Amino acid sequence: MTYPAFSVCVYCGSRPGTNPQFTEVAKAVGQWIGERGGQLVYGGGRSGLMGVVAEATRQAGGRVVGIIPQALVDKELANQACDELHIVKNMHERKAMMAERSDAFVALPGGIGTFEELFEVWTWRQLGYHDKPIGLINVDGYYDTMLQFLQSCVGSGLMGEWQLGLIESSSDAPALLQNLVQNSGTRLETPSLRSVI
Fold first, then answer.
1. HEC profile for 78-138?
2. What is residue 14's three-state secondary structure?
3. Which EC class heads this enzyme's classification (predicted)?
């Protein structure tokens, strides 16, 4: 087995959304990972943006690792084309395995599941459970209002500026991915996340 140059966890919607730019960026992210000999770690579905990023990675020559709970195998249409498809018991196990298998994390547009995964891995970073970089691809201003709200949390004294600084946000997907992968090379080794969360 040839080991990938790096491994990026992508959180994104199981729906395509109404903006065609969401699909375009999902394709671009998968192509970027695959063309550089990388590995995609994601939620294991073949619907929506999840399926787009996985297929684009595979078509560009990258490895695809899907991790999906049994309860979502039918709902999200588990992607049998993955190089590795792990069917796990629950969301807790899914998120821990995704985090362990990744060098960096990035969120594309998505719904409540994407938000929850992003916020949890961000919380784990602020608590010191890992020191892997986290990015937010702000496609066509999708996350503008969320970022404004988070800045207002800082202004209200309920969050520190340093916590907000643990996430890098950009509309430039290739540049953001390059930064995340480069920064992941300096991270400290961390214990099994399943042993600490």
1. ECCCCCEEEEECCHHHHHHHHHHCCCEEEECCCCHHHHHHHHHHHHHHHCCCCCCCEEEEC
2. coil
3. hydrolase
| Secondary structure (3-state) at 15 | coil
What is the pairing mode between strands 39-42 and 63-69? Answer: parallel
Q: Whose structure tokens read 């994104």?
A: 12
Tell me the per-residue pLDDT of 110-138, one tens digit each, with 9 for 90 and over. 999 999 999 999 999 999 999 999 999 99
The answer to whether residues 44 and 85 touch, using CB atoms and an 8 Å cutoff, is: yes
pLDDT in tens, 57-111: 999 999 999 999 998 887 768 999 999 999 999 999 999 999 999 999 999 999 9
Exposed/middle/buried for 53, CB within 10 Å: 0-12, 13-18, 19+?
A: buried
72/44 Cα distance (integer angstroms):
9
> Residues of 18-30 as b/e, b for ≥16 C-beta within 10 angstroms?
eeeebbebbbbbb
CA 82 – CA 44 distance, rounded (Å): 8
**If residue 179 lies in a helix (H) or strand (E), which one and from where to where?**
helix 173-184
